[in-house]
């Protein structure tokens, strides 16, 4: 599954932000956020404590989108977030790129730019590809989310390692159950 570059960047940025805040054993710092944003082509200078707090506050609602059981629930959450983010779409050209959409004003704060970008990207994925393209890891104890880019939209785990671990555990449980039923 190939999303448009801009939609794919925004949706995977949303997942990576959720995962950063959900899985970090220590409070997330500006450097962590700057690293994540740079991977998704969001240019920032120094990330302030207030910006860290603003992005931290956004992640629970984003996680709800990834765990929504149906499109109506996901759409309701995204509609609320769209209202809060006040996107201001505009066509822009920079750095030799072809014209493309930005969802926030150029002078918007970092939190407003990121929020508008990820919310509109997730909305595009939900509308164009369905809520099943957004998911939460099915591995026991894992809180990570992901954007499903598989061909058949059947992804259930955040990583191959979690899929393998879960499959091995299920196989061992079945083998143990067979052994105990054969012994009785």
Q: How would you summarize this macromolecular structure in one to three sentences?
A:
The chain has helices spanning 5-23, 30-39, 49-67, 71-85, 110-129, 160-183; strands spanning 90-92, 100-102, 134-136, 145-147.
The topology string of helices and strands comes to HHHHEEHEEH
Q: Give the strand order of the largest sheet, numbering strands 1, 2, ... along the chain.
A: 1-2
Average of per-residue pLDDT values: 88
- Quaternary: single chain
Number of strands: 4
CATH superfamily: Jann2411-like domain
First and last CA, distance? 48 Å
Helix content: 55-70%
Overall tally of domains = 1
Radius of gyration over all CA atoms, rounded: 19 Å
CATH topology: Jann2411-like fold
Categorize the overall geometry. Answer: elongated
Strand content: 5-15%
What's the architecture in CATH terms? Answer: Orthogonal Bundle
- Label the structural class: mainly alpha
Tell me the number of helical segments per DSSP (H or I, 4 or more residues long): 6
CATH hierarchy, class: Mainly Alpha
Q: Could you list the spans in which at least 5 consecutive residues all have pLDDT below 50?
A: none
Q: How would you characterize the largest beta sheet?
A: 2 strands, antiparallel
């Amino acid at each position: 599954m190939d999303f448009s570059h801009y939609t794919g960047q925004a949706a995977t940025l949303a997942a990576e932000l959720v995962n950063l805040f959900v899985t970090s054993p220590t409070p997330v710092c500006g450097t962590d956020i700057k690293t994540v944003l740079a991977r998704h082509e969001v240019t920032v200078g120094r990330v302030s404590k207030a910006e860290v707090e603003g992005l931290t506050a956004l992640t629970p609602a984003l996680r709800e989108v990834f765990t929504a059981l149906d499109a109506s629930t996901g759409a309701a959450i995204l509609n609320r977030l769209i209202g809060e983010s006040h996107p201001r779409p505009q066509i822009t050209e920079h750095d030799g790129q072809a014209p493309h959409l930005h969802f926030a004003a150029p002078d918007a704060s970092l939190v407003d730019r990121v929020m508008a970008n990820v919310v509109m990207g997730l909305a595009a994925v939900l509308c164009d590809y369905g809520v099943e393209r957004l998911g939460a890891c099915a591995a026991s104890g894992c809180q990570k989310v992901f954007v499903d880019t598989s061909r058949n939209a059947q992804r259930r785990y955040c990583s191959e390692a979690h899929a393998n671990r879960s499959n091995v555990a299920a196989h061992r449980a079945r083998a143990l159950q067979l052994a105990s039923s054969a012994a009785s």
